Amino acid sequence: MTTVGGSEGGPGRAIRGSEGGPGRAAGGGGAGRRDAVALRLEGVRKSFGPLEVLRGIDLEVAEHEVVCLIGASGSGKSTLLRCIDLLEPIDAGRILVHGEEITAPGVDVDRVRRRIGIVFQAFNLFPHMTVLRNVTLAPEKVLRKDPREAEAEALALLERFGLAEKRDEYPDRLSGGQQQRVAIIRALAMRPDVLLLDEVTSALDPELIAEVLDVIRELARQGMTMVIATHEMGFARETADRVCLLDGGVILEEGPPERIFSEPREPRTREFLRRIVEAGRL
Ligand SMILES: Nc1ncnc2c1ncn2[C@@H]1O[C@H](COP(=O)(O)OP(=O)(O)OP(=O)(O)O)[C@@H](O)[C@H]1O
Ligand SMILES: [Mg+2]
Prior knowledge:
Elements: E1 37-48, E2 51-62, E3 66-70, H1 77-84, E4 92-97, E5 100-101, H2 109-115, E6 116-119, H3 131-141, H4 147-160, H5 176-188, E7 194-198, H6 206-221, E8 226-229, H7 233-239, E9 242-247, E10 250-255, H8 257-262, H9 267-278
Parallel strand pairs: 3-8, 3-9, 6-7, 7-8
Antiparallel strand pairs: 1-2, 1-4, 4-5, 9-10
Helix pairs in contact: 3-4, 3-5, 5-6
The chain binds adenosine-5'-triphosphate and magnesium ion.
The site of adenosine-5'-triphosphate has 12 residues, from strand 2 and helix 1.
């Protein structure tokens, strides 16, 4: 079983990429913030009937850190993200966001979800609403933002990600890549503490993948804390501060991408990467 802060057995992973990961400033700017850990999972277990999918997940994600979850199909990446967003109840363990235990009994689930953005492979935009309305709806209805303020913020986001001219279009008039970018922008409009992305490029044609990955890269540069389930190893290698391999219901191996991809320690990680290479995905 892995321990919180890393299975490396090394001298406890310091906040952000201590093993020489890309150097966005360590938790920079959080003056006075006591808890630089954005997300923490302790011994998280989850079964579906007799199938034990998560068997004790320990994971700590620092503020501004980008963690990529990799692993075979069915290894539990989506389940893990869904547990973090409280879409699935966990069977054991705890999940904390900025020190608050969100899995404690009696916690207001809606309030917690406001702090966590999640984007899925299928973009789930509201088809009968314009791009702009898709983005402003939750800030207005859930955060009770003034409509003008919500609109100004939505337009700023659309502008930032090159979609301002699509503000009045309906989703079915956008390309898949554009729709996925709107879905990401919609999650960002809620100003989440943590953004969870589940295979957000896997429904897209290859030529559309790049534009979505560009958005995620940009968010990483700007310090958004993210946990990303992905089969895009090249992207994980380039963007993640840390890569975690899920196998057998635990995080079998974790570390900075350059180490995981070039010198995997666990035989099962080597086997996983060998299959990825064979499939031409690395
Ligand atoms: N709601 C559910 N009910 C029953 N079994 C489920 C449910 N959701 C997931 N599972 C099972 O849990 C296991 C993990 O699924 P999960 O979707 O988390 O894997 P994954 O790592 O995201 O796979 P992929 O790479 O294909 O997306 C699978 O065996 C899946 O069939
Ligand atoms: Mg999945």
